[in-house]
Amino acid sequence: LDSEEFRRQGYMVIDFLAEYYKNIQKFPVRSQVEPGYLRKRLPESAPYEPESIERILKDVHDDIVPGLTHWQSPNYYAYFPSSGSTAGLLGETLAAGFNVVGFNWISSPASTELESIVMDWLAEMLNLPKSFTFSGDGGGVMMGTTCEAILTTITAARDRILDRIGREHINKLVVYGSDQTHCSFFKSAKIAGILPNNFRQVKTSRVNAFSMRPDALRAAIQADVDAGLVPFFLCTTVGTTSTAAVDPVALLCEVAKDYGMWVHIDAAYAGNACICPEFRHMINGVENADSFSFNTHKWFLTTLDCCCLWVKDPSSLVRCLSTNPEYLKNKATDTQQVVDYKDWQITLSRRFRSLKMWLVLRSYGVDYLRNFLRSHVDMAAYFEQLVRMDGRFEVVVPRSFALVCFRLSASAVIQRLYDSCHRHGHGQKFLEEETLNDVNAELLESVNSAGQIYMTHSLVDGVYMLRFAVGATLTQTHHVTYAWKQVQDHASAVLARRIN
Ligand code: PLP
């Protein structure tokens, strides 16, 4: 690596990205390409001779950018956004520049130590109990995604219970979530060897805003105990993926503790907001959980990937996941005074994620970060108000954090279709074949294919809803006003099409 050439090319790439951000609003937010578009444009084999950065960047511009869905666009409201930032991006760049592989302390002491420090800082910001921090015999680790965090904790919990009751009883182990728990939970349970028959999805309903009911959980657990099974793991969620519902963590922990279960709190999205004192109560009861995780790559100005996981008992991870081959042996490990993060996770090699988190925390500070999160919640509240003011729409569940779930309402759609049927003499049959869900799906596709904004949907308890998730770093109030106008215009067009 020649440093002058690196400098030259590095400037070019940063310039390229700066231009990208300057022009980001000009691109359709959701990529408009067709499947297989790229294979048609790229050569069949890798180049034999080197190519210049100029040529490569031109192809990035011409071939790659059209196939991007622009997650950093201010008009992006899909899934849960992934809020990038200058500090996050530059921290990522520094980490890639150093390119260390910090699987144990000696392989890069700064990587391990900074991670432990930053995890303690974040724990303090979240007001997590001391028992989750290094000074309280717990500790935190950074992983790629929540899926990894959940798999890691289920695996540790599985071994903890099997050490007690015997390996031969693995088929009796049962895990619990709700019907709103993220799909990664059951996938992780499957990977950890739990029988699919032993996955329980406690039913939620619109009445409880899709949060898990403690009495329903207790009934499910007791039924399994009565059947000779062994409940061992509960995944609660603070901010579910479909509607950002919040499970009552404290009450659910009480139930689980009666049965000696491991409780994990998946706060992938909403955990970010919990650094604001006014949202912290959403994780009340965390002191009785065994593990807690959230994704700073979702809503914390941090580039993908970074899932922060805290556990009260790191030794339960180490007992289950540690490896000690000859080629990794070293004096620091022998002293047992250092953290070897390879023993806290599934993989061996790991990225220097704490560097970008450190840059984000230092560059913006806690106060700014809190206000950043609040501004998104305020914009979502504003959007919710706009929805409520238009009689054709309904908010399906009360807004939670910065997510608004809404749809064209039954009364608006059915009434219009009904009137139209009668006007045109189509009769009842036409009306029966139409469903509200179809109309809303059509509205969403109409909005997204126009490319001005991007939202996604969910289907909960049979109700198809559009999700408007504020969280892109560049979004401002005027973008939200614009987005709502887009939704209204497309709704008018869809309804008019249906009626004619
Ligand atoms: N849990 C919840 C509540 C989520 O909303 C998501 C993703 O949106 C996940 C887990 C999965 O996160 P990851 O992609 O980091 O595995």
UniProtKB/TrEMBL annotation:
GO terms classed as biological process: amino acid metabolic process; carboxylic acid metabolic process
Cited Gene3D superfamilies: Aspartate Aminotransferase, domain 1 (3.90.1150.10), dopa decarboxylase, N-terminal domain (1.20.1340.10), Type I PLP-dependent aspartate aminotransferase-like (Major domain) (3.40.640.10)
Coiled-coil residues: none
Cofactor field: pyridoxal 5'-phosphate
Keywords: Decarboxylase, Lyase, Pyridoxal phosphate
Cellular component GO terms, alphabetical: cytoplasm
PTM sites of type N6-(pyridoxal phosphate)lysine: K298
A Pfam family reported for this protein in Swiss-Prot or TrEMBL: Pyridoxal_deC
GO MF annotation: an example: carboxy-lyase activity
Family designation: Belongs to the group II decarboxylase family.
Listed name of the protein: Tyrosine decarboxylase 2
Organism whose genome encodes this protein: Lophophora williamsii (Peyote)
